Each structure stands twice: as structure tokens, then as C-alpha cells.
């Protein structure tokens, strides 16, 4: 473990953190395009193979805020190593999985790695010079979207050249190296939140997240009016307020409800929900649109998995470049302005996709605009959250923001699946209007995200006598001091 007396150079720390984030983000999307391949290889059916995605989604949603909070309490570097090792163990098990059941269990273990992102933001805030924090947080946040795009690009060539099992071998190697580097080169955090880990809060949080996401992700196949779907939504309606009440009255809350009520935090979280609906849905459905056989349906481009990934490469590059630029843009214009710009670009790119999608060059321009929007918005959301909360709560606040984006993605994908498949051709493929109507829904959610972003209060970080005090905010030009939250 890196010594706390002689701190590792923050640039070395940053390289290690980026490797961890990249490994997690690759595993989010690499598997999506090759589910039919896995279905055939493991002799299962379509309904069962979708659990390869669902298990990962549920696990990551549960563990992202929990691992972030535990890191705030016991040490971020220590929990970063744990999260990376969970990714590596899950990847090893997935690569060797002899059956679909084992693969689903392996994906659930991989989901523990969701804690990598909030821990990364917390370590950056602890270790980096103040003037470097915005750029570092922005770039590492954008890596999550970049990794998602790269996963779509690499999946086809890897499967063609090797096999689908290498979609897990390669991330396993990356995460093992990242875990070793984190142990040796990432210094332990000087910031700790006192108190115990509230197991009841963790159980309640896990319960309502699982019931909500299970209903949302499986409702399309189970039927939205089926007893199990309705029952899960009803359980969520009961469990969510119980969790909020328990947290609000706990001496040692897992997630401080006072923190969640900070104007900057709850408005950015609302943006995250709406923005996640658009971004993650596009990761799932744009490749499907590109792969639709145009000679049969009259739309689409008949691309292979590999070709559709390559067509989306400009989007990935644009996301990465926007993430790199976001720090300088935030320093000049403010993170709020960057967030508004990112959400606006996303809605414009989606609107263009609805109106113009007949030629490859249309898709290349539109997906590039979307990539710019993704990179800017991801970076800005993370910076706004990091600046708005006490340093001791960076991990859990960032974890909840990432989690809310994931919930938004699950909601958006479910809505889009219902709209796209509402009317099918005799051959089982969606009609063209299914996609245009679905993408139109995402135009609305992205435009709403931009409007909410306009209302996000500007955060002004001030120096306090203790590290656990919250920053002040500026609203309508007047500075309003927040009460200390982490006592």
C-alpha cells in the first residue's frame, strides 16, 4: 500500500484510477452486442440470456453507493482494491463459465466493481491539487461513456478473432493489473467518516433498487400488467419511503438525506436520471438500428456487429475529446454551463437522428454530436456533485449520482423497447416508425435534462475551518452558507 507519509505523484494515481474505470466501463457494454452468440454457445434461450445484462445491472446498482460509502468510512484505496478484485474474480468466473447460470452469477460478482467510479472521484478530490480536480473528475467520468462506446467497437472483432470468452479474459487482465497498481501506488485517503456501517439501510436500499430495476428491466418480457411486474412496482412504492424514513432518522445513515436535499445535488441527480435514459438507451438500440437489414425492411444499414461498432467509433472519440476538454471548459464557463451544453447537444443529436437517418453520413454526424454531448454532460455532472458535498461524503454522493444514471438507463431502455417493438413486421423486425417514435421519446427526456440543468444552483467552493463542512452555494447572486452535514 502506498505510504501516506510520502504521497504518490497524483499523475501516477490518476493513471491507475483511469485503468480501473476503463475496465468497469468496458464490461458494461462489451457483452450487449454478442448476446445471441452467448445464447447459442451455452444452449439457452433469449429470455434467460438477458439475465447476463440484468444481473450486472442489479448488482452494480446495489453496490455502487454502498462501496462508495464504505470507502468514505474505512478508506477509499482499500475499497478500490476490493472493487477491482471483484471485477477480476467475476471476469475469471465468466470466462470459464460452463453454463448460463454460472455466467449470470459471475456477472453479479462483476457488478461489485461499480464502486470503482465513486471511489475514483473521492480519491481525486483527496489527492489532486484543487485546480486539477475538475479536469481529472471530468475525464474519468467521461471514460465511463467512452468505455461503453469502445466496448461496442471491440466486441465484434474480439469474438470473430477469438471467442466471446475473451470479452472477459481481457478485462480480467486489466483489472488485476489495476488492482495491483492501486495497492502499491494509490495512497490511502486521509479523509474518513466516523461511525458504523448501517446494515439496515444497506438492506433497504438494496431491496427497493432490486424491485424497481427488476420490474423495469424485465417488465417488457413478463408483461407490464403481469402479477410479478405489478407486485415488484408495488414493493418499490413501499420500500422506497421506508428507506428514506430510516435514513433520515438514523444516527449513522448510509446516505445522508440532508446531503441529498442540497439543491445542487438533487437537481444534478434529476438531470442524471433524464440523461441516463437517453445515453444508455442509445448504447442498446443504435447498434440494433444499424444492424437492421435494409434490403428487407427499407431502413437500417445491414451492418454486422463489427461494422456497427466501427460506425460508432466517431461517437466514442468525440466523447473522449469532450471529456478531455471539459475541465478547461468548466474553468472558463462553469460546470453548470458545460452540463447545459452537453444535454442540449444530446437532444439536438437525437432530434437529427429522428429526422435524418437514411445515409451513413447522417448517422456519423449525429452520433458524433451525441458523443460530444455525452462527454460534456458526464464530466459536468460529476464535477458539480463533487463540489457540492463535504469531502467526507464524496464517495457516496458520486455513487448515488452514478446509480441514478443507471436507473435512468434501465427506465429508458424499458420504455424504448416497448415503443420500438409495439408494432412488428411479419418477420419479427420492428417497423421504422418504432425506432423514430422511440428516439423521439429520448429527444424529450434529453431536452428536459437541459431545462433542469439550467436550474442547477452554481456551486462556489469556500475554505472552511474543518474538512467536513459543506461548500457554500450561490443562488441568484447571493451566497448562502450550508449547514455542516458530516458531524
Automatic annotation (TrEMBL):
Pfam families: MFS_1. The keyword Cytoplasm does not apply. It is a multi-pass membrane protein. Signal peptide: none annotated. Residues 13-464 form the Major facilitator superfamily (MFS) profile domain. InterPro entries: MFS, MFS_dom, MFS_trans_sf. Keywords: Cell membrane, Membrane, Transmembrane, Transmembrane helix, Transport. The chain crosses the membrane at residues 12-31, 51-68, 80-98, 104-124, 133-154, 166-185, 197-216, 222-245, 266-286, 306-325, 337-357, 363-386, 407-425, 437-459. GO terms for cellular component: plasma membrane. It comes from the Bacteria. GO terms for molecular function: transmembrane transporter activity. It is found in: Cell membrane. PANTHER family: BLR6921 PROTEIN, MAJOR FACILITATOR SUPERFAMILY MULTIDRUG TRANSPORTER MFSC. This is Drug resistance transporter, EmrB/QacA subfamily. It comes from Nocardioides scoriae.
Amino acid at each position: 500500500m502506498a505510504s501516506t507519509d510520502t504521497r504518490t505523484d497524483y499523475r501516477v494515481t490518476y493513471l491507475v484510477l483511469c485503468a480501473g474505470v476503463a475496465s468497469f466501463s468496458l464490461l458494461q457494454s462489451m457483452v450487449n452486442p454478442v448476446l445471441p452468440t452467448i445464447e447459442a454457445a451455452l444452449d439457452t434461450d433469449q429470455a434467460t440470456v438477458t439475465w447476463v445484462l440484468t444481473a450486472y445491472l442489479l448488482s452494480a446498482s446495489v453496490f455502487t453507493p454502498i462501496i462508495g460509502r464504505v470507502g468514505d468510512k474505512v478508506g477509499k484505496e482499500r475499497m478500490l482494491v476490493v472493487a477491482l478484485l471483484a471485477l477480476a474474480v467475476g471476469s475469471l468466473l465468466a470466462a470459464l463459465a460452463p453454463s448460463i447460470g454460472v455466467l449470470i452469477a459471475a456477472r453479479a460478482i462483476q457488478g461489485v466493481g461499480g464502486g470503482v467510479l465513486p471511489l475514483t472521484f473521492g480519491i481525486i478530490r483527496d489527492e489532486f491539487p484543487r485546480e486539477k480536480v475538475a479536469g481529472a473528475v471530468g475525464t474519468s467520468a467521461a471514460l465511463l461513456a467512452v468505455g461503453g462506446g469502445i466496448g461496442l467497437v471491440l466486441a465484434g472483432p474480439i469474438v470473430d478473432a477469438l471467442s466471446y470468452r475473451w470479452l472477459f479474459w481481457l478485462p480480467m487482465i486489466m483489472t488485476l493489473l489495476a488492482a495491483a497498481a492501486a495497492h502499491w501506488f494509490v495512497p490511502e485517503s486521509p479523509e474518513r467518516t466516523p461511525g458504523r456501517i448501517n446494515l439496515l439501510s444497506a438492506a433497504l436500499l438494496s431491496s427497493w433498487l432490486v424491485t424497481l430495476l427488476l420490474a423495469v428491466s424485465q417488465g417488457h418480457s413478463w408483461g407490464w400488467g403481469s402479477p410479478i411486474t405489478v407486485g415488484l412496482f408495488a414493493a418499490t412504492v413501499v420500500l422506497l419511503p421506508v428507506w428514506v424514513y430510516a435514513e433520515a432518522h438514523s444516527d449513522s445513515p448510509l446516505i445522508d438525506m440532508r446531503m441529498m436535499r442540497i439543491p445542487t445535488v438533487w437537481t444534478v441527480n434529476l438531470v442524471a436520471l433524464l440523461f441516463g435514459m437517453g445515453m444508455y438507451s442509445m448504447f442498446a438500440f443504435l447498434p440494433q438500428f444499424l444492424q437492421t437489414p435494409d434490403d428487407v425492411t427499407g431502413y437500417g444499414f445491414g451492418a454486422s456487429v463489427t461494422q456497427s461498432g466501427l460506425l460508432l467509433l466517431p461517437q466514442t472519440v468525440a466523447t473522449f475529446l469532450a471529456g478531455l476538454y471539459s475541465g478547461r471548459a468548466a474553468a472558463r464557463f462553469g460546470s453548470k454551463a458545460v452540463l447545459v451544453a452537453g444535454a442540449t447537444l444530446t437532444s439536438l443529436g437525437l432530434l437529427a437522428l429522428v429526422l435524418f437517418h437514411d445515409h451513413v453520413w447522417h448517422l456519423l454526424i449525429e452520433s458524433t454530436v451525441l458523443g460530444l454531448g455525452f462527454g460534456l454532460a458526464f464530466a459536468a455532472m460529476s464535477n458539480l456533485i463533487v463540489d457540492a458535498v463535504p469531502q467526507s461524503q464524496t464517495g457516496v454522493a458520486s455513487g448515488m449520482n452514478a446509480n441514478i444514471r443507471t436507473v435512468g438507463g434501465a427506465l429508458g431502455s424499458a420504455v424504448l423497447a416497448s415503443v420500438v417493438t409495439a408494432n412488428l413486421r411479419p418477420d419479427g423486425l420492428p417497423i421504422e416508425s418504432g425506432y423514430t417514435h422511440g428516439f423521439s421519446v429520448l429527444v424529450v427526456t434529453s431536452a428536459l435534462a437541459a431545462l433542469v440543468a439550467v436550474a442547477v444552483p452554481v456551486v462556489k467552493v469556500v475554505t472552511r475551518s474543518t474538512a467536513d463542512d459543506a461548500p457554500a452555494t450561490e443562488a441568484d447572486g447571493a451566497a448562502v452558507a450550508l449547514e455542516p452535514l458530516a458531524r
